[in-house]
Amino acid sequence: MKNFHLPLPERIYSRLRAESERTQVPATTLAREAVDDWLRQQSRNARQDAIAAYAAKMAGTPLDLDTDLEAAGIEHLVKTGKKSR
Description:
- The protein is an all-alpha fold.
- It has one domain.
- Helices cover 71% and strands 0% of the residues.
- The protein has helices at residues 10-23, 27-58, 67-80.
- The longest helix is centred in the middle third of the chain and has 32 residues, at 27-58.
């Protein structure tokens, strides 16, 4: 475990302290979990951006999605009534 000094604006510090008291969880634990959650989300976002960039770069090339596979996927979605995101 490493220590990290993080000055916080008064408003954030007060909200963190209030949440700590409300949940009876140490403020350091809440802050650690919040930073961890944020870093995980950044990693997911970076991965999603990399996949989107790769897909855009490969569009129309032999590495693009197989048209038969794409048609089968669409047919499956239509049959099962599942909506895309």
